[in-house]
Here is the input.
Amino acid sequence: MAEALKVNDEGVRGGSGGGNGSGITSALGGLSAYPKRIRSFMHDVRVEMKQVNWPSRSDVISTTAVVVVTVAFFAVFFGLTDAILTHAANWLFHLASH
Here is the structure.
């Protein structure tokens, strides 16, 4: 993270443009550092991914089951609520029209 901040700070200072082509030189210098930055980023990703605590297969299955049951419950609940309220609104409109 600190390396990325250094690179950003250098890019801001170098990109201010001082005439006589120094902006182009600093831009090309930034391009030459790009492969090194990508390699460093990928290394950091590999290091972080090794530290991830991955869930077990049984944890994933049980959590998925809880989500499916919860979604099914709310689907039925909101379906019934919608049907009841629609029926009540239609009854009121029918009552009001007479």
Q: What stands out?
A: Residues 55-98 form one domain. The helical segments are 2-14, 22-50, 57-97. The longest helix spans residues 57-97. The mean pLDDT is 83.
